[in-house]
Amino acid sequence: MSDFWNWAKPKLLVDNRLIALYCIVYFTWGMVMNWFGATVEIAKFTYWWQVITCYIFYMVPISLLLRNLPFHTQYAYGLMAMGFLEFGGYYFETSYAYPNNLMDQFFGIRNFSLGMALFFALYFPLGNWGVGKLYSLLFKTKVSSN
To answer: Where are the transmembrane segments (predicted)?
Structure first.
């Protein structure tokens, strides 16, 4: 376990402005996606504040750990992370999937959580790319590599 912490610690100890930008971007992204999922009746969080726990407390640290890795590697690890999150959300009923939603109709009810995990795993490489671009634009500096 100490090997993991030795690897992870420098990836998590970054500029506070970078962490704040991740939190702002991911919180906004989460609120929009939760609103969209509820509006088109695909899925939603049971409580709005779950955007904070999932997008900021779960996804931001994972994004920091995965940034600077190749796209396919970020996606693969992101898929594993989102698989656990999606499974837990529907198992513990902290997420609500609307009955007969568009994804159920298109992919089948048994593939709903898998489809959600496959989609949301893209957040890690896309989020890291987007936050990196915003950070460079706002602070006129590139995000340092670890």
So the answer is: 18-36, 48-66, 75-92, 112-131
